[in-house]
């Protein structure tokens, strides 16, 4: 489902009416996160999570941090719940043997950068990664899941959306109240254009360092400038993808905003292909969406990869050193 507009309006009557339900949700989350973890790994565990529901840049953050750890001589493994996949796990993701119906789309993308495990029980997934030789484990999501002890927790925030109206589901976009979540976090990564990052200035507890990042498109060899495209995306905020294409000079004649992780049915793909041919448009989608496309359809679609860039890693370098992760 698309996030409702009232989540980002301070004085919405519907949000006020739903606030008591949000308070109950927040209380339930607080009770859950207060539980003692049932597993503490023998290697550092870094959680990349969020306080908001929906897309805040966790996957690009996991990729960027994985690449950094590899450069440091570490052997990172990634553990994901595998949202949208049918396998309970723990199982190591293999693009040759699994598709998005098995393990979800994000793990298929992440496995290009590091061994990736899918496990509905995160503790079992962490144990599997430990046994397979990980020197550090990245927990993709799971900030509100208490089953595994986290040595370092990074909260990602969309600078444009911020924390919305500050209320908890269903009254607002938050999984828990922001001040309580940030009190458990070691770092907050604010992702977005510079102007938005500067205007988003929430109060941070002393234990939580701030990092700033932005998503940049990778060179693909495609001359985007002047390209007339039909863009489609089933991610948390498809409008950000459309804006990225426009920033590259593409003429986004139409953007099809799909639900996050929405399956690509034959009817949907046929409709998109038919429209693109009739209007002389090129089909283009995100890297994460591309792994859900049927093999036969992928050659018909251009893919625009994006990567997270962080100008100053120093605050995170200091946090990594505190948990024993240094350059080898």
Automatic annotation (TrEMBL):
Pathway it acts in?
Glycolipid biosynthesis; lipid IV(A) biosynthesis; lipid IV(A) from (3R)-3-hydroxytetradecanoyl-[acyl-carrier-protein] and UDP-N-acetyl-alpha-D-glucosamine: step 6/6
| Annotated InterPro entries | LpxK (IPR003758), P-loop_NTPase (IPR027417)
Report which reactions are catalysed by this protein: a lipid A disaccharide + ATP = a lipid IVA + ADP + H(+)
- Which GO BP terms apply? lipid A biosynthetic process; lipopolysaccharide core region biosynthetic process
| E.C. designation(s) | 2.7.1.130
Alphabetized, the UniProt keywords read: ATP-binding, Kinase, Lipid A biosynthesis, Lipid biosynthesis, Lipid metabolism, Nucleotide-binding, Transferase
Per UniProt, ATP binds at 52-59
| Top-level taxon of origin | Bacteria
A Pfam match: LpxK
This entry's Gene Ontology molecular function terms read: ATP binding; lipid-A 4'-kinase activity
Q: Where are the transmembrane segments?
A: none
Q: Which GO terms describe its cellular component?
A: plasma membrane
Q: Which PANTHER family match?
A: TETRAACYLDISACCHARIDE 4'-KINASE, TETRAACYLDISACCHARIDE 4'-KINASE, MITOCHONDRIAL-RELATED
Function summary: Transfers the gamma-phosphate of ATP to the 4'-position of a tetraacyldisaccharide 1-phosphate intermediate (termed DS-1-P) to form tetraacyldisaccharide 1,4'-bis-phosphate (lipid IVA).
The record's HAMAP family line, in alphabetical order, gives: LpxK
Q: Which family does it belong to?
A: Belongs to the LpxK family.
Q: What is this protein called?
A: Tetraacyldisaccharide 4'-kinase
Organism, per UniProt?
A: Octadecabacter ascidiaceicola
Kindly list the organism's lineage.
Bacteria, Pseudomonadati, Pseudomonadota, Alphaproteobacteria, Rhodobacterales
């Amino acid at each position: 489902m698309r996030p409702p507009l009232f989540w980002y309006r301070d004085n919405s009557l519907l949000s006020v009416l739903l606030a008591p339900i949000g308070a109950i949700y927040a209380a339930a989350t607080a009770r859950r996160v207060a539980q003692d973890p049932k597993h503490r790994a023998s290697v550092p565990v870094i959680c990349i999570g969020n306080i908001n529901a929906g897309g805040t840049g966790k996957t690009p953050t996991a990729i960027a941090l994985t690449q950094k750890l590899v450069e440091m001589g570490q052997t990172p493994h990634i553990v994901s719940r595998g949202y949208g996949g049918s396998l309970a796990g723990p199982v190591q993701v293999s693009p040759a043997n699994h598709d998005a119906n098995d393990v979800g789309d994000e793990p298929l993308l992440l496995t290009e950068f590091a061994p990736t495990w899918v496990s509905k029980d995160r503790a079992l997934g962490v144990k599997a990664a430990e046994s397979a030789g990980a020197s550090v484990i990245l927990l993709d999501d799971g900030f509100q899941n208490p089953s595994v002890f986290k040595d370092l927790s990074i909260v990602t925030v969309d600078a444009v959306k911020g924390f919305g109206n500050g209320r908890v589901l269903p009254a607002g976009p938050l999984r828990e109240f922001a001040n309580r979540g940030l009190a458990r976090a070691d770092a907050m990564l604010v992702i977005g254009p510079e102007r938005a990052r500067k205007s988003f200035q929430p109060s941070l507890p002393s234990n939580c360092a701030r990092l700033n990042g932005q998503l940049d498109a990778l060179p693909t060899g495609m001359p985007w400038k002047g390209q007339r495209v039909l863009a489609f995306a089933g991610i948390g905020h498809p409008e950000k993808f459309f804006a990225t294409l426009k920033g590259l000079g593409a003429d986004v004649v139409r953007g099809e905003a799909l639900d996050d992780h929405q399956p690509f049915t034959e009817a949907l793909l046929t409709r998109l292909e038919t429209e693109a041919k009739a209007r002389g448009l090129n089909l283009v989608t995100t890297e994460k969406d591309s792994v859900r496309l049927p093999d036969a359809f992928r050659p018909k679609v251009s893919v625009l990869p994006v990567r997270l860039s962080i100008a100053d890693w120093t605050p995170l370098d200091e946090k990594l050193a505190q948990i024993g992760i240094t350059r080898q």
